Every structure is written in structure tokens, then in C-alpha cells.
Automatic annotation (TrEMBL):
The keyword Hydrolase applies. The active site is at 118, 322. Residues 454-484 have a biased composition (Polar residues). It is a lipid-anchor. This is Peptidase A1 domain-containing protein. Its main location: membrane. It comes from Escallonia rubra. Keywords: Aspartyl protease, Cell membrane, Glycoprotein, Hydrolase, Lipoprotein, Membrane, Protease, Signal. GO terms for molecular function: aspartic-type endopeptidase activity. Coiled coil: none annotated. Belongs to the peptidase A1 family. Residues 100-444 form the Peptidase A1 domain. PROSITE patterns: ASP_PROTEASE, PEPTIDASE_A1.
Length: 508
């Protein structure tokens, strides 16, 4: 039987400020150091050392040793050292929907925003001169204040007029020179963002040894009114759409000649990752073409085969690769093929169904069990390249009636009644390239630390991701928008101690 052996361990996420660089036309965001006060407050992790303490610097040194060791395993040492000194880290934050976030800098003077990264939607929007938005969040460490963008205080801000090609709501304009309004309505619980489109400077850095600053003028939403899930913890400080539409940042960078029409995201097993604009991937990556719908363009691909352990099934279906969806949603027959094949080969006792979590295939671990075996899950894409899942499950911890810790793991796949979505949990352990020039999806195993050679230390399928999420958020494409796509039904919201009180599906 084709199995992965998973060793159970506790994951401690030590942070580091790093960026990445490669060649002209590849850019990265400026990202907070993992131990900087804003990010530390938002992550709200137990056991983080106090700034300035001996434990703080010991932890920094520990991460540096790991970090530098991984860099030295790759290509040019000088290039990699310079690359990671600038900052281009993304964070998977469980308390904010288990999505990946980056700290982006906009306007003059500069303001930083912690935005969710979403390949399933197009518009980049920020809370702006808002009457309804999240201005701060309270954590166990105290209050964390968010920046709010203002058109009046940024000297480089200009409104996008109604006669612009970027304005999709021209019918709501009384005059062609008025500011273009927008409203993005999401499927989840009356969730929306409403405001006007503006143009301002997004601060980027070249991904080379010079780390040159590049000021890119981009269009984005000045979100005056946010509703629903955006007030409850999902993308509270902005959503960064990375879709195919002309208003997305990758499209604007390409149209202005600042980067090639491609970008990549890396999803590390430790919750850290990175994003790069102008990254076309490598010649040895796996690839499959996008299925482009003229009216609803998304990163949709075709699959031809599912392999679970010893079971191999030929089946043709399509799915959207969406970083803004926490987990993976599949309809039949794909859902039944994966779950039933996995269940037939699982060696641990089936866990009783729990209404607090959306996953139906869960398995118990004994008190002294330190590892478990699961069948490998591999997907074959159109064209024949394989996508081997490194992280198809989640490990949960709870307490029984005697206050004893008990553990179980779940195959993190949710049954969908409609569209298939490959969520970011299936992307873990990969450098994923969204190449809009060749119109292909590319992927290659990566630990997200090596700047040049993403396969130097590939993620081992035997590794465990560790920590369960507190929420499920799927910022994807919005309903009622001509550039959108239909959505799977969201899991039922609950007050689960395992998944938290917020569960939502956001569809553009």
C-alpha cells in the first residue's frame, strides 16, 4: 500500500524578515518582521518571547540558522542572502480565516495594510474613509490597530473616473468624470465591500541584488462600507484580488510593462510563504493549461485521474485553484473517489462525526500514538503531470470529559454541491505559478525558503502541518458579477472550539 508516515509533533513558528529576488521585472512586497509588534499582535500566538528578552534573540538566532542553512543549500549564496533581507513573507493566520496574508504598503506617506491574498477574485480593496469597517481587533496580547486608507491624506491618490475602462459600474454614474463607484457582493451572510475606485502608489521592490524600490500606480477599491464577514474576522484590513480581470494588480503590472504577466505564491508547511510578481516558474515544473471562460475567467484546470494509495481511478473533472479558499471543496464523483478510497485504506479508527467541523472523514489517535500512516493522494492533471498532495489532512486536539487531551485527524475535503475548488491546503508544500502569458498553472515542490532552487529541500509528504484552523473563509469570486463563478455551499457556522465561531464562503 502506498502510505505516508506522519510523525506527530508541535510546530513552533519562528519568524524572520525576508524578501525574494531574481531578475528584472519581478517584484515583492515589503513585509513586517515576524516579531514586529503589529504582526506579533495579530498572530496572537501563545508562547512568543517578549521583544528584547534573551528568549526573543535566541529564537531569532534559531530561525536564522535554519533560514541560512536552507539558503546555502541552493544556488547563489550572495543572491539568496540579498533576496531574503528585503521582506516578502506571507503568513497563514488561523484566527483570520486560515488564509495567507501579506503586509502591503500604499500611498504617500506610506501606510501598511495586512491583506488576504486571493487568486479567486480580482479587485484589491482597502478600508478607506470608512463608515463601516474594522479599525482594530482585540487579541489576548491586547488591541491591534489597523491603518485606514484616506484619499485626502495620500498626496498621490486620485479617483478613477466613470469613463475609465476599469469602471464596470458606469450605468450608476451621473457624469463621465465622476468617481467610479463599485460594489462587490459576496455569497456569505450579506458580505460586501462598497466604495469608489481610486488610483495610488503600491510600493514594491525589485527582486534582484539591488532591491530597487518601484512605485507602481494601481487601481483599487476605496472601501467605504464593509459588511458581513469582513466585520467578523475575514480579511478585516483588505482583500488583495489576484484574478485574471484587467483590474487585478498582476494585470496592471503587466500592462504597464513592470512585470511579465505571471506571478507565483509559495505555501510553506509551517504557515509561512511568499508571493512574487513576474515569476514564470522553471522549465522543470509541472504544468497544465487553464480552461478560460470568456465571461467568467478563473484559474480553472482539468484533472484526469485520482490516485489514493493503491486505488487509481480515471475521472475527468475541472477545478479552480483558489488561494482564498482555506480547504478543498469537491463534488461527486471526485469527492466520493477521494474520501471513500482514503477511508478504505486508513489504519486508524473512524472518529464519530462532529457537527462542529465540516469534515466527515476523521480518525482517532490513541493516547500514546506518536505517528500515523495515511494513503498518499495524487492528482493527475490534463497533460499528464502529477500533483502530489503533501497536506490533505488536519490534526485536531480536544479534551474529553476527564479533561484529557485527545487527538484525531481529518481529511480536509468538504463536499460541494457545485463547483470544485482546490483550496490552499492542497497547495501546501508547493511553489505555484499562475502564468497568464502561457495560460498555464505551474507547480513545483518547495519549502518556500530557497530563493532560486525551489526543489532543493522539497516538502516531504510524511510531514504534519500541526495546527487546526479556527475559521474557514473562502474569498473567491462574487455572485452576480460577470467575472465571477458559482460557489460551493459553505460549512455551517458554529461555536466550535475546534474551528471557532466563524465559517464562511465568500464568492465574487
Amino acid at each position: 500500500m502506498d502510505l505516508s508516515v506522519v510523525v506527530i509533533f508541535t510546530v513552533v513558528l519562528w519568524g524572520s524578515q525576508f524578501g525574494f529576488s531574481d531578475a528584472f521585472g519581478t517584484f515583492g512586497f515589503d513585509i513586517h518582521h515576524r516579531y514586529s509588534d503589529p504582526v506579533k499582535g495579530i498572530l496572537d500566538l501563545d508562547g512568543l518571547p517578549e521583544k528584547g528578552s534573551t528568549h526573543y534573540y535566541a529564537a531569532m538566532a534559531h530561525r536564522d540558522r535554519l533560514f541560512h542553512g536552507r539558503r546555502l543549500a541552493g544556488g547563489s549564496v550572495e543572491s539568496e542572502l540579498l533576496t531574503f533581507s528585503g521582506g516578502n513573507e506571507t503568513y497563514r493566520i488561523s484566527s483570520l480565516g486560515f488564509l495567507h496574508y501579506a503586509n502591503v504598503t500604499v500611498g504617500t506617506p506610506n501606510l501598511s495594510f495586512l491583506v488576504a491574498l486571493d487568486t479567486g477574485s480580482n479587485l484589491f480593496w482597502l478600508p478607506c474613509d470608512c463608515s463601516s469597517c474594522v479599525r482594530e481587533i482585540k487579541t489576548r496580547s491586547g488591541q491591534v490597530d489597523f491603518n485606514i486608507y484616506s484619499r485626502n491624506t495620500s498626496s498621490t491618490s486620485t479617483p478613477v473616473p466613470c469613463n475609465s475602462n476599469f469602471c464596470q459600474e458606469q450605468r450608476q454614474c451621473s457624469a463621465p468624470t465622476n468617481a467610479c463607484p463599485y460594489q462587490v457582493s459576496y455569497l456569505s451572510s450579506n458580505t460586501s465591500s462598497t466604495g469608489i475606485l481610486v488610483e495610488d502608489v503600491l510600493r514594491l521592490t525589485t527582486d534582484d541584488s539591488q532591491l530597487k524600490t518601484v512605485d507602481a500606480r494601481i487601481k483599487f477599491g476605496c472601501g467605504v462600507i464593509q459588511t458581513g464577514s469582513f466585520l467578523d474576522g475575514a480579511a478585516p484590513n483588505g482583500l488583495f484580488g489576484l484574478g485574471i480581470n484587467n483590474i487585478s494588480v498582476p494585470s496592471i503590472l503587466a500592462s504597464e510593462g513592470l512585470a511579465s504577466n505571471s506571478f507565483s505564491m509559495c505555501f510553506g508547511a509551517d504557515g509561512l510563504g511568499r508571493i512574487r510578481f513576474g515569476d514564470n516558474g522553471s522549465s522543470d515544473q509541472g504544468e497544465t493549461p487553464f480552461n478560460l471562460d470568456q465571461f467568467h475567467p478563473t484559474y480553472n484546470i482539468s484533472l484526469t485521474q485520482i490516485s489514493v494509495g493503491d486505488n487509481v481511478t480515471n475521472v475527468e473533472f475541472t477545478a479552480i485553484f483558489d488561494s482564498g479558499t482555506s480547504f478543498t471543496y469537491l463534488n461527486d464523483p471526485a469527492y466520493s473517489i477521494i474520501t471513500e478510497s482514503f477511508n478504505s485504506q486508513a489504519q486508524d479508527k473512524r472518529h464519530q462525526s462532529d457537527s462542529d467541523i465540516p469534515f466527515k472523514y476523521c480518525y482517532e489517535l490513541s493516547a500514546n500514538q506518536t505517528s500515523f500512516e495515511t494513503p498518499n493522494v495524487n492528482l493527475t492533471m490534463k497533460g499528464g503531470d502529477q500533483f502530489n498532495l503533501t497536506n490533505p489532512f488536519l490534526l485536531f486536539s480536544t479534551q474529553d470529559n476527564y479533561l484529557q487531551d485527545t487527538y484525531f485527524y481529518c481529511l480536509a475535503v468538504v463536499k460541494s454541491g457545485d463547483v470544485n475548488i482546490i483550496g490552499q491546503n492542497f497547495m501546501t508544500g508547493y511553489h505555484v505559478v499562475f502564468d497568464r502569458e502561457k495560460m498555464v498553472l505551474g507547480w513545483k515542490p518547495s519549502n518556500c525558503y530557497d530563493a532560486k532552487e525551489s526543489n532543493t529541500l522539497p516538502i516531504n509528504p510524511k510531514n504534519n502541518t500541526g495546527v487546526p484552523p479556527t475559521a474557514t473563509v473562502n474569498p473567491e469570486a462574487t455572485s452576480g458579477n460577470k467575472n465571477g463563478s458559482p460557489a460551493p455551499p459553505p460549512p455551517t457556522a458554529s461555536r466550535s472550539p475546534l474551528l471557532g465561531s466563524f465559517a464562511s464562503t465568500l464568492i465574487l
